[in-house]
Amino acid sequence: MSVEVKIFDQLADVAEDAGDALSRGQQPILYDRMRWFEMTQKHCGNGRTPLVVRAMQGDSAAWMFLCRTGKRSAEALTSWYTLAFDIVRRGEDRGLIEAIAGDLGDLARISLAPMASPARIVEGFTAAGWKAFVEGSTQNWQLRVPDSFDAYWAARPGKLRSTVKRKAKKANLEIRIHRAFDEDAWADYQAIYAESWKPEEGSWDFMRDFVTEEGEAGSLRLGIAYQEGRPVAAQLWHVENGHATIHKLAYAESAKSHSPGSILGEAMFRHVIEEDRPATIDYGTGNEPYKADWMDAPRPLYRIELFNPRQPAAWAPLLKRKLSALVRRSATD
């Protein structure tokens, strides 16, 4: 059976072509859904033109969501909010990735990140004549959730448990955990963020859309800690299909001595483990030292750089990559 491949430069056309194949009901991973790509393009697209390739064979289909960065270059259609990128699939993708690579022959270079499992894309593009280079991009700390919160908490470092117990008595925080969008809670979240060490939010419009829609779907967990009525710490989680992700956290610098972030963290883990009972929890991307206190271990996330040797524009960067690989290999010999 032949593979049908189609290329799109408008997300509305992708959505119409896909039907419900890229909906929440069909795609269990948040970052694989049509709506996620639509919000990314709308709020974080920076004027980039989408480049989406769909390959279909029988009931199986695969989509690669890219955006153009130049006449002969493209990258994953992601933003700083995208914690995982991959080919989006329906059914088996055998042969479909190679077909996608074959129809991207006018490109010289493609960059994809962050990826947990690059092997299948590398295999498919290599089969189509592309050259692939895989390198570490960042890390994703994860936790295999035990049977109870008590078991989880007992396994945390003693210093963390002691700090939370000691500071909680003095801080006297009121903690509210919201499972739906709430205007007052959202205003408090923004106030905390403004008082925190965090850089300016990339797109408040994206975040509001995300929180609103995930609240409607029942997957939002927004925790706010108050001290004498003043919001001092916040955590934004997403819980769905047996998995929880900690997307955002912040605390007011003025309340730092009370460790409101740690106190709220303990409450959030207790709530999610006891109420939602996910199999796994992850701490987004990044290798900040504090994550080791709350998680089991990190897993690597990768960047794939793909070069098409049939395009002259790929020759110089491809040669540079090959020379760099030789230098690194010589240094370790």
From TrEMBL:
Instruction: Give the keywords, sorted.
Output: Transferase
Which molecular function GO terms apply here?
Answer: acyltransferase activity, transferring groups other than amino-acyl groups
The portions of this protein that span the membrane are: none
Q: Which organism is it from?
A: Parasphingopyxis marina
Span of domain N-acetyltransferase: 176-324
Q: What InterPro entries is this protein classified in?
A: Acyl_CoA_acyltransferase (IPR016181), BioF2-like_GNAT_dom (IPR038740), GNAT_dom (IPR000182)
Q: What is the lineage of its organism?
A: Bacteria, Pseudomonadati, Pseudomonadota, Alphaproteobacteria, Sphingomonadales
Q: What protein does this entry describe?
A: GNAT family N-acetyltransferase
